[in-house]
Every structure is written in C-alpha cells, then in structure tokens.
Design a protein that fits this description.
alpha+beta, Rieske Iron-sulfur Protein, 4 helices
C-alpha cells in the first residue's frame, strides 16, 4: 500500500503532479485540500485521485463522452451473455432427462370382418399401418382362398411401393422394383419377395393383423398357418 506523507496544511494540486515527489515543496491552488490534523497526514492514493492528478480536465471530459460502452454497460452486457449461456446450457442438460418418443402405430390391429372385403388388393390400411390386405381365390403357397397381409416395405432399400391397379402389381418409385400381387418380386433390384404379416381371426370374428411377426417366402415361412387366413 502506498501513502503520501505531507504536512498538515499541504493541498494536492492537479496542475503540478510532480510536486508530490519533491520533498519540502508545498502545493497551492488545488481543489483537494488535505485535512488539517496534528502531525503528519497519510493519504491513501486511489485511481480516481491519480486520474485527476495526471490527466487534464479535457481528457477526462473526452473519456466521459466516449462513444464506447462505459464500464457499467460492459458489466451489464457480460452478465447478460453469461445468463443467456447458462440458461441455454441448463435447457440442453434438461433435454437429456426426456428421451425421444416415436409415435409409431401399434404393431397389432383389427382390420374388420372378412365379408367387408372383395377380391384383390385393399389399400385402406397402407397409410396408417403400412399393410396391404389382399384377398385371393387361391394362394400360391397354401392353395386355398383367403387373406394375406403384405408389408408395404420394399425389400431393396426400404422404400414404399405403390399399387398400380391397371397393371395389377406393386411398383417401387425409388429404384423400380416390381412385385406381383402375391408379393413375389419379378423386376428391378429387389432381392426377395415382400414380407407377409401374421393374420388370424380374433375372438370377435374380426381379422387380426400382427406386424410383430413376419414371414419370408425364401425361408419357406409362407406355408405357416398364421401367414394366411383361410376364408
């Protein structure tokens, strides 16, 4: 800590700072008189006092009217940025407390009664459940009339084929794979037939489709009793 040792009747002059360091010299005409007290007075130096001692009044005025932000404004800006960053970090941390939820349709659903369907491909469940329900007079595997549920996912890269009723086939818009209404692939890059979903009769007599169980023809699974509903 630095102190100035001056006589009791000495005053600080802003016009002559060098006089502070000249022993034995008194200063006059200063705006900051020292308090008169017995003995030697100790005056603690500080930045505002030194600024007034070593800077002219015109320089101080220029600092006060500077277009730059004041110290208080800079502090406010810094605290605002810190608060915003803290809030963003807190929100990001809280986001991990809530896992992503996919609102997927149920894997199992009732598709109505058998007498509600005519022969051919029915697309009423494609949009919601990604299923074509097909009624055929004779299945190529089980050689009986009834229903099978085709999963509307191309076996090439997973696109959704379209049913072309005029050509009586399923056609993938991505890479041109083609499937017959039985689900068997016959053109394009698809390596295997479409998959079938489990299809049975529920206790109330409605058709029950369960996509959690799938059947592949190349594995001989289309012959499974639950891969085809006889009707």
């Amino acid at each position: 800590m630095n102190f100035l040792l001056l006589s009791p009747d000495t005053t600080i002059s802003s016009a002559s700072p060098a006089a502070l360091f000249s022993p034995g010299r008194g200063l006059s005409n200063a705006p900051y008189p020292l308090p008169a007290s017995a003995g030697i007075s100790r005056i603690r130096t500080s930045w505002p006092a030194l600024a007034r001692l070593f800077l002219s009044s015109s320089t101080l005025d220029a600092i006060d009217t500077s277009p730059l932000l004041t110290r208080r404004a800079w502090l406010g800006l810094a605290w605002g940025a810190f608060s915003a960053a803290s809030a963003a970090a807190l929100a990001a941390t809280g986001r991990f407390m809530f896992p992503n939820v996919l609102n997927e349709p149920p894997q199992q659903f009732k598709a109505g009664f058998p007498n509600e369907y005519g022969m051919g491909v029915d697309e009423r469940w494609k949009e919601k459940y990604a299923i074509w329900l097909v009624r055929t007079p004779e299945d190529i595997e089980q050689h009986a009339s009834g229903f099978y549920a085709l999963i509307s996912v191309c076996t090439h890269l997973g696109c959704t084929p379209n049913y072309l009723s005029a050509e009586n086939k399923f056609k993938c818009p991505c890479h041109g794979s083609g499937f017959r209404t039985t689900g068997v692939n016959f053109e394009g890059p698809a390596p295997r037939p479409l998959e079938r979903a489990r299809i049975v009769l529920a206790d109330d007599g409605q058709i029950l489709v369960d996509k959690s169980r799938k059947f592949q023809r190349e594995l001989g699974q289309w012959a499974d009793p639950e891969a085809f509903l006889k009707a």
